[in-house]
Structure prediction request, 379 residues.
Amino acid sequence: MEGSGYRGHDIPIVWSGTRVRAWVPRPLADQGFELGTRAIRLTERAVASVATAGNRSALLGPLSTLLLRSEGVASSFIEGLRSPLADVAAAEVGGTLGDAASYVADNLGAVVGALASSRSRLTEADLHLWHRRLMESGGALPPPMVGAYRTEQSWIGGTSPRDAAYVPPPPELVGELMEDLVTFANDDALDPVTQAAVVHAQFESIHPYGDGNGRIGRILIGWVLSHRLDLTVPPPVSVLIARDPGGYLAGMTLFRMGHLDAWVEWMAVALERSSEAAVELLARSEELLSEWRVRLVRVREDAVAHRVIDLLAEQPVLSAATIADRLGVSLRSGQSALATLARHGIVERYRPEATGPGRPTQYFMASELLELVSGWPGR
Prediction:
């Protein structure tokens, strides 16, 4: 599959005594990335929409965490890691509610950590750190492969490289290709949307880790956008990828075949739609919080319950201990606040199954907010 139009080439490798073919992406430093008129127009619209959504989320403070949670949950959903959002939110505050919820919470933690580093230049050490965070709850990888590039041949789909849908480059080429990718990610020669699309596609083509490549690759989209556009929270693009897996996979294939415009156009449209939906989610969430405050109008103004409303926007499943820790109040005050919020229909008891000895921690959830996020955007 050689040719000047392709962004890589096949090479022969030997796997378990059998000759197969692996794909080696061309270094990004050796490639050109000129777009057509339609693609340029779509990227310009996408950049404007992403910036608008980012500025909106920055103004709303704790509510911006909803976007991060949507990204983490949707990214895990793509990988087949499915757990109720309430379970995930409880796992974030220490609930031992099963492996799936813990894995998704780890994904959210990796997203948060990556965005926190977006003000600085990207390093390979950053990528390894995200990978370790992603794998905190365990998985199939042996310890030496956590936070480190793979040392074995991998494949996507099928039972082996013989019948795989895609075979990435052999492990001895991964380090050099990733060094080239990180250099490209820190450049600013392209517009932010095109750069994010190319970085993601190249990362997935290299497939540098033994597991978690899809999730790290999607985190990179957000990192590039945040780094280039100075965003606190980028739009949750994984939500749109989850809704159109066929278009996403076709775009990735077209990118490898040299059709840059088709891939960038798909990414630009996905980011524009995600940004518009993010603004809608934030507006609806803000309305809900305002309604909650109205419900508490007869509650003493200095009561802790008023302060917990903003905390619920950031963390929609809480325990009294979480409130005490986050707001610097007593455990009794946390319990009283939850009781007040429950009486006014803002939270309700969440009863996960007990997973250990002793009295389980009592969690309360803001079910209206959880339903809003879980059902957005039309999932």
